Amino acid sequence: GWNVGAWKSLAPTSRLKKGITQHAAWTCMASVHSDKTSIKTENLLNHCKMLNSYETTEFIPFSIENEQLGWLRKEFATKLHSLQLETKQKVFTFEWPQCSEDGSSFFSGNVGLHAQLLSSHRQLHERSAAVNDMMKILFDRGEMRGWRGELQQVSSGFNKSPSLLLERGCVPYFGVAAYGVHVNVLVKDDQGTSVWIAKRALSKATYPGKLDQ
């Protein structure tokens, strides 16, 4: 995981103090460390862009009824395919990336839901149960982590009807859009304006004890 430290200063030549940026005049810096790399930047926006960059060639689209809703890592798609062969369940369909015969085009592949889960008589909850039951096998085997027992709507937009109700712990693995609500508190005093930053509970499945926005 990533550890982020933030500092503030009144000017570039001032001594940096650990804390929270209080005013637009403050210089904001970040030091980010992971198991493999260390990054220092004076621009948090560039840092956010770096964290949100990825190579689409490393992923396979996840679609329901010809509408792309997410991205799966190729390794995870392969794991799903192997599990489906093992359990003999009909939950997903797999189309693997390939080039055209003349090499002029490339098909990025697709992971979708099996036709029997898309038929008109199948209800949303029944379709979702089939997907989540298979995911639970991987969680029980320790191949996935963070099972919450909470369903997340999967749709093409915030106000769109859900195409699937996915276990929240599976959301990062399917690369689908997730939404949350945060309460931001601003405090004004003689020294200026400060913002509260919450700290995640130690019992959280992801990033326990880390600062949260």
Automatic annotation (TrEMBL):
**Taking every annotated instance into account, which residue ranges of this chain make up the domain DUF4743?**
45-177
Stretches of the chain forming a coiled coil according to its record: none
Q: Could you name the domain of life of the organism this protein comes from?
A: Eukaryota
Fetch the Gene3D superfamilies from UniProt: 3.30.750.160
UniProt protein name: DUF4743 domain-containing protein
Organism of origin: Hanusia phi
Instruction: Tell me the lineage of the source organism.
Output: Eukaryota, Cryptophyceae, Pyrenomonadales, Geminigeraceae, Hanusia
